[in-house]
Each structure stands twice: as C-alpha cells, then as structure tokens.
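We emphasize that the prediction below concerns an isolated chain of 99 residues; any contacts that depend on oligomerization or on bound cofactors are therefore not represented. The input was used exactly as deposited, without trimming of termini.
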Amino acid sequence: MSIDAGRMLWRCRRGMLELDIVLRVFVEQCYAQLAEDEAEAFIRLLELEDNDLWDLVTGRMTIEDTSQRKVLEMLKKQSLCLGLERDDGLEQHEQDGSL
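Result of the prediction step, given as a token string:
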C-alpha cells in the first residue's frame, strides 16, 4: 500500500508545529526510500494522536512494534537534526525541586 509523497504530505498535517515540521521533512527526504513494511508502519504511526506521536518521537514513550520502532528511530534522528529534540531542562528542575 504505497502512497505517493504528495498525498503523504497531506496526511502528515498536524495541529502541532514541531510534529508538522518533522513529518514534512521526513516525507520529503526519507519516505520514498522506505521498504513496504516501514511505509505501513509510518502510516500506522500517523493514526496516533499528536501528543502520543510527539512523545514517541522525543523518546518520552516507547512502542513495542519493531517496524514502528525502526521508523521512529528515523523520525528521532530527523527531529535532532532539525533541533527539535526534547528539552529536558524543565524535567531536571522538577526532579531537583528548583522550580
């Protein structure tokens, strides 16, 4: 079930700007090279709610599905390259009580 890049870009439109950027760049740079099972895993990831998908991309959550994990690793690298990685500063302050 291969979907052309133009349609996939439309499916990647989200309500969260950071996710929009990561997904758009991923489709433009990586989607055409995905194996069929990876493309299907990517489509399944797009069915998730924005916050859940962002938590997976930033590493706050994990997923059991091996093919989805492989695609998530690609998305995480994309996020890091774009400078959209998770900001642990707030979590650090919460842990040490300095807030």
